[in-house]
Structure prediction request, 733 residues.
Amino acid sequence: MSKAREAKAAKIRQLMETEGDAVGTSTRGFNQGRYESVQTLDDYEGLKADAREIKEDAIDRLPELLDQLRDTIEENGGTMYIADDAADANRYIREVCEDKDAERVVKSKSMTSEEIEVNDELEAADVDVVETDLGEWVLQVADEAPSHIVAPAIHKSREAIADLFNETFEPAEPLETAEELTMFAREQLGELIEGADVGMTGANFITADTGTMALVTSEGNARKTAVVPDTHVAVAGVEKVIPSVEDLQPFIELIGKSGTGQNITSYISLLTPPVDSPTVDFDDPETPITETETDRDFHLVLIDNGRLDMRDDEQLRETLYCIRCSACSNVCANFQHVGGHAFGGETYSGGIGTGWEAGVEGLDSAAEFNDLCTGCSRCTTACPVNIDIPWINTVVRDRVNRGEVSEVDWLVEGLTPDEEPGGVSLQKRFFGNFETAAKVGSLFAPVSNWVAQSSVSRDLLERFLGIDARRELPSFQRETLKDWFDARDSRVQDATRTAVLYPDVYTNHVQVERGKAAVRALEALGVDVVVPDVRSSGRAPLSQGMIATAEDHAHDVYAGLAEYIDEGRDIVVIEPSDLAMFDSEYEKFLPEKSFQRLSESSYEVMEYVYGLLENGAPADALQTADGTEVAYHSHCQQRTLGLEGHTEAVLSDLGYDVATSDVECCGMAGSFGYKSEYYELSMDVGSELQGQFQTDETRDRTVVASGTSCLEQLDSLLRRPSRHPVELVAPRR
Prediction:
């Protein structure tokens, strides 16, 4: 393994060991809470669509809304300043503090203030800065960076926080319980807030019509920070502006449910500053307050820092719709195991973090963790504003590949000395063009398999391509599915339907038996099947950020399938990630009409079998079972498409006793699990599925899975063979 890959693997390994358990427990809890809380909504998808529409409108009309907000803030008696970048914002905030002779600033949680590093600026000017959010304060005491957008100290256990407080503050009695720690922090922070000269908050949303700020928090200290000092500085990105107070409704409904699984967040504060409440003299609270003493000073500092350029960037623009709920982090299997200190850049972390880092910090920062997004698409259904997060990550990966990084260390990307900086690494070229390798592998099989498995080859593959020597390689078949199909006669007379079985790369060259089983199952149900000679879907190059190559594949695939669609044939797909390409990503590559024709004609194989059975096809034409026990794991993108239920239904109807895994990711994620820098993370993610399929109830069951990656990972984890479900139900040869 190269030094660069080993360094990345070592960092991930360390974070898995030191922070993974705490991050995983919390994020999985948040994620489960989201599932449960959104079920209380009458129209979850409708609410998400409403939120999306409001953000689209707000970003589209942003210059107009900023002008309106400035007028509103000034009419209310406050001041609004739009900062070009972090330095500009920090200068303005420092000058406000200097004008107030401020000795102490108290801050509520704000990712935007983390972005501009305002604490460092103020502390350099001899201003004491105190974080009042419990998690942020813990990290300030520990001198650590946040690891999560919503729960910054998620990586620290209660025991670790107790040790930190006991060592730092030396309380009379050692602190142990969560209640003791919370009460101690409350007392400490309460005193610090009372003596503060300036309060600084973020803002989840700001309404242009009234200047109202919405603060959505799990603690009450944000309110205190805003109203106890007589000077309030609110810091937010320009994207936080929405048109009206009425527009807050869907966001208030969604943000807590999406982020932490709460039906409603503990504290929702709507402030229209400067607020009318008087300040309090804590040294003499009984003294009557005069009119002069009730005067408050309010400054709204809105940050550009690359956002207006993002607004004009067709691909990154969607990032500005983000409401910072962290759902994309919580649902992400890789994030659950390493947290934001690996899956993050200078400020932002998680799935949407790539877009933010690329826009506000630059591609250099985004490139450091972008490859941890595997494109599994679980975050797309979790996002309350329907942001296509995997696509943003793919776009950033493509830009990194094209050399749009200003000063990135390309060794981190695994480049070898013979490659020019700014090019696609050999590793990505190989995986992105795996179809070529598969064709060569089949052409020379079984010799190619023997050569690839030799110790010399494995060493070279690891050294130059970063393919981990511990990962078992696929075994190419000399007779491809296409060869087999062309050498046989159709078995269907008086067909009730006609279909194309799409020969994805693995089905055609590696897992040929599942392709044969699919043909036999469809023909048994009265379907006239053809297996065309057509290119791979483009999923492989897309996963490596090679967008132009993926687009070429899309056009070739459509050209190869269009004649069959014209004939009225259905397109049946075995690999869920390829179906997801037809149903989602191809919308970006094909003309609208072509995309719709292909998407509407395409089905996952077990979905198609289910439909045939529901419409009268004879179930006894398939292999039935009398209570045979099956352990089933569905593919990530199959779940995103909402198709896993069809497989369960078919197996159950045919007499199988099905136990379905509730683990959402196997950890393999295509090429991700082969890469030496990510192999250990892949296996660590997979350990959850391994444990679930090795219980007393499941260890003797037949293991089936719907996707290539899942099958490969399960074979590695369980050391007992796994099969595609279509292989169970297809008639024997």
Notes: The chain has two domains: 40-308, 481-729. Residues 481-729 form one domain. Residues 405-421 have pLDDT under 50 and may be disordered. The first strand starts at residue 79 and ends at 83.
